[in-house]
Amino acid sequence: MANTMKSSAVSLAGKKRNKGKSWTSQFVRNYQLHLFMLIPIAYIIIFNYVPMFGIQIAFKNFSPGKGIWGSPWAGLVHFQTFFKSYQFQRVIVNTLRISIYSLLVNFPLPIVLALMLNTVRNARFKKTVQTVTYIPYFLSMVVVVGMLVQFLNPMTGVYGTVYRLITGSASYPPSIIQKPGSFIHLYVWSGVWQYLGWNSIIYIAALSGVDPQLHEAAQIDGASRFKRILTVDLPAIIPTISVLLILNAGSLMSVGFEKVYLMQNNLNLMQSEVISTYVYKVGLTSGMGNFSYATAIGLFNSIINCILLVLVNWLSKKTSENSTSLW
Fold first, then answer.
1. pLDDT digits over 204-240, tens only?
2. Where are the alpha helices (DSSP H) in 168-211?
3. CB of 176 within 8 A of CB of 233?
4. Any residues with CB less than 8 A from the CB of 269 and at least 6 apart, and which?
5. pTM higher than 0.85
6. Inter-axis angle of helices 291-319 and 77-84, to 10 degrees?
7. What span, in angstroms and rounded, lies between the C-alpha atoms of 327 and 324?
8. How far apart are CA 254 and CA 260, in angstroms?
9. What distance in Å separates the CA atoms of residue 232 and residue 215, rounded to the nearest whole number?
């Protein structure tokens, strides 16, 4: 009893001493940890918050000579112009088609790959598969699109060579890269090849935390390997899946600019023009330098993404039993 009272008094005195210390003294004591925070904080401020100052260009008739402050206000004119433009429906539909198609294909496949690799017992084979699937991620997007164009070249590419070898014809096959209907499939499935292994890393890491005793108990109960995947492995990574699905839904309207722009040509433009490429062309390559109009389109895109992020997060919080959400 005496020892218990003594330990309680010591802990109470320690709490009082810690409470008496100011936050400045704690900051000085742990200054090394706070110095590590300077670089990411500076990065976020410079590249995420400072550019928000230029959003007001969307509501002005911006002139580089007058600057942001000197340019006259235009209100919502540029937004109205975009909504009435003949390009509005086309770029919105193309963006949604590519984004939803990519989400339906690129989101579940890394989960399947991670679950399959988790069941492999041969360590050498598992590492080989992981390495082979990781490598394409480190290739430049220009290199990936260049490889795609070379492989599908009807005259000198693998596609043309195999076609003539199988058919025995001396004529060249039709060009796939120039077909408007082929653009979305080439974009999505080349992305699967490039990002499949990399996107599976987080699921493999989550699966490594599954207690092996759960598998042993399920195996004793007679569960097959596939049944153990459904009842043990998959429920363990549901929170990770939910968070990543929310993040992916929040960028549904943000189709990558670089790959789309590199794959575009005059024949597939009707199917490949998305918001990001349209903003680039309107703001920089049109010769008019309509920065206000381009900023208004970009701001509209960001607002839609923000609304989708909040909506999907709310739905996940309401429907999930574990209340999995970002906030």
1. 999 988 888 888 888 888 888 889 888 899 988 988 8
2. 183-199, 201-207
3. no
4. none
5. no
6. 80
7. 9
8. 11
9. 7
Other residues' Cβ atoms within 10 Å of the Cβ of residue 47: 9
Return the structure tokens found at 83: 């909504």
Residue type, 8: S
Q: Map residue 171 onto helix, strand or coil.
A: coil
* Amino acid in the structure at residue 272: S
CA distance 279 to 295: 8
- Cβ–Cβ contacts within 10 Å for residue 30, how many? 10
* Selection from 87, 101, 96 nearest residue 254 by Cα: 96
User: What one-character-per-residue DSSP string does 206-240 give?
Assistant: HHTTS-HHHHHHHHHTT--HHHHIIIIIHHHTHHH
Domains annotated on the chain, with CATH: 56-319 (1.10.3720.10)
Helices H / strands E in the chain, number of each: 20, 0
Whether residue 244 contacts residue 108, with contact meaning beta carbons closer than 8 Å, is answered with no
- Please give the distance of CA 259 from its chain centroid, rounded to a whole number: 14
Q: How far apart are CA 322 and CA 57, in angstroms?
A: 43
**Structure tokens of 180?**
């408007």
Q: How many CB atoms lie within 10 A of CB 304?
A: 16
Cα(81)–Cα(300) distance, rounded to whole angstroms? 12
Q: What digits encode the pLDDT tens for the residues 149-158?
A: 999 988 888 8
DSSP letter, residue 30: T
Q: Average pLDDT, stretch 165-176?
A: 84
Q: Which residues sit opposite 60 in a β-bridge?
A: 73
d(CA 12, CA 18): 10
